[in-house]
Each structure stands twice: as structure tokens, then as C-alpha cells.
Amino acid sequence: MRRRSAMSEVVLEKVSRNFGNFAAVADVDLRVNQGEFVTLLGPSGCGKTTTLRMVAGLEPNSGGRISIGSEVVSDAGRGIFVPPERRRLGMVFQSYAIWPHMSVFENVAYPLRVRRRPNAEIQEAVTRTLRLVEMERFADRPAPALSGGQQQRVAIARALVFEPKVLLLDEPLSNLDAKLRLQMGDEFRAIQKRLGMTTLYVTHDQSEAMALSDRVVVMDRGRIQQIGAPEEIYRYPASRTVAAFFGTPNLLDAEVRACARIDGRRVRLDVVGQGWAGRCEASHEARPGQAVTVMVRPEDARIASAGSDAGDQELSWSGRIAHSTFRGATRSIVVQTDNGQLNVDMSAFDAHAIGDNVNVVVSQRAAWAVPRGDVTA
User: Fold this and answer.
1) Could you tell me which of 364, 360, 353 has the C-alpha nearest to residue 337?
2) Is domain 245-371 classified as CATH 1.10.150.20?
3) 119-177 tens-digit pLDDT
4) In this predicted model, which residue has the larger pLDDT, 377 or 326?
5) CATH number for the 10-235 domain, one of 3.40.50.1000, 3.40.190.10, 3.40.50.300, 2.40.30.170?
6) What is the pairing mode between strands 276-282 and 267-273?
7) Do 371 and 352 meet the contact criterion of CB atoms below 8 Å apart?
8) What's the Rg (C-alpha) of the chain?
């Protein structure tokens, strides 16, 4: 299969979708660069699937403009709306939408048949695409005889066979079990990189988004909260909403005492909370007295003996172990402190008993502050 030669970036400018007085999507600005894998991530009802469907042309946008490559495919203000079949997009749905009365070959061939491609071209393109997703030997198998993972590969092959400009995927792995979901995600990402295909992906699974994406777009209540590389968003969230969406972080209320710039991207804050004080880092300067939320990821914290001194570059809370949950490779510990409960993830082999008095310690570089309340990036 050839690489996309035509420009295939996707650009959304102030895109909105209203249902009566309810704004499902509001003023979304996003550029997906050619060959990039971008994921729309957020809880149910945040607007991510509606945004994808507007790009696909399955729903009209109430406001703003959508472009694919050099073509404006939808502009609410100018009355432009290119129908889905003319946008040259491949799409994989959560349900896969495999036709049970067709063989694997005919399922994949369908987009080419409706485009009236010659039989020889169809044979060559379908065989090539099935080989790409390692389903060539199943070409004659009835679709109902496939496993969930095999059906997902057929759905991807059908989306790729006519060489679309852009690939859109709406929760394509959610029907698979955890192990197969991880395997298929890795395989799909490898195919996407090999083809250099511009991809817009929707999921509510944080781990999936971080593992697959070049950039993640976190959405909430119809608006974009933050856009960035997976590690950037995970480590340096722009708001409490973004911080809370990934895992089970410790979110601690504090007040700023002093602020000093570290470099062009970070500042160091001296903060004080209920029964604790120390330093953390943030992206923006804060004035003395300003309220902030300090995020500490469970995997960045460690448990030390009660009464042990924290280092100069560390924060520390004293408390008692309230819960301990074995999770195989790790153990999740809940420590009750004067500041509430703190979650700590540690090696499963580290032995701490419920009721032990301990200190929870974290490096100031792993403690990240955001303004109290939510902000939109």
C-alpha cells in the first residue's frame, strides 16, 4: 500500500455543535498534522465522538470550519458541507459493522465495489490490505466465524483498502478483552506508522491514549482542556480536571508562599497545606496567597519509616496505613494523614502492615501545582 502523497492534515477552527440550547462541542480549535496520530480523550458525554462525527461528515457543525488537506469540507457560516462519501475518509466504528452475509474478502472489497473499481484492481488491493493486517489466509472465511480481534482487523482493512486521506476511529478496541486490546492497539499503531496515515482516534481509556498517540486532546464538557504529548499531559496537567482524569492522583489543597522561576517552562513554588509545607513545581507564576492544587502521582511517592527526615528536595506527610491492595506487580497503599488519604503505588514485595505509622515522601520535582479550580487550556 502506498504512502499518502497528498496533504492530509485535518484542521478544525472554532468548531461547535449545538442541540437546541445545549452545546455538545464548543469552539474547538485543532490541527492534526499529516501522518500524525492524535487521540480525543475524555469521559462519556465530553464531545469527543461528536467532534469525530463532524470531521467524518456524519453530523453537521453548527459553527466553525473543518478542512481536510487544502479542501474546506464544512463551513457553517458559508453553508459549505461536503458529504461523507466525498471526504475520502476511512472510519472504524466501535461495533466494527462487519456484514455477516459476506466473506472477509467481500467485506474488505465493499468500499472498492461501490466505487466501481475494476475487478483486477479490487483483487490486488484487497489481497494487499489483508496481508497488511495478517488476515490474508482468512479471505474466504464467513465473517461470523471470526473472533473479536479478527473482526477488528477486517474493519481496519476495509477502512484502509481505498487509501483514504485520513483514518478516523471511534473506540475501536473497547469490545476486546484487556490483553487483546493491548495487542491490537500495538499492532494498529505499527500499521499506522508504516503507512504514515493521518489518524484521529477517540477513546475514554487513558492508558490506550498514552500508548498510541503522538498527541492527546483532553476534552470535558464539549471543550478542549489541554493538548500535548502523552507524557507532557500526564506529568504536567494544565488543570485539576486533566490531572484527575489520569489514574488516581493525590490532589492536595495548598497556598502559595513564594514563587521563583526555574527556566522558561517551569517555576518553583513554596507552598503550605494542612499540616505540611514544602516546594513543588508549576508552569505559571503564582502570587503569594494564591490557592493551588498540588498533584502527586501514586507511583512517584514512597513510604518511609515514621519520624524519618525528608531531604531538602522532598515533601513529606506523616500518617498511618489504612488499606493495602495486592495488584500483582504492584501494591496499592492508602495512608491516612491529617491532610486526608494519600495513595501510594509500590513494589508488591515491599511489606507494610495495615496500622503501621509511616511517612509518605515525594520529590519536589514530582509534585506539580495547578490553579485551584478548573482552567481551560
Assistant:
1) 360
2) no
3) 999 999 999 999 988 899 999 999 889 988 888 889 889 988 988 889 999 988 887 78
4) 326
5) 3.40.50.300
6) antiparallel
7) no
8) 25
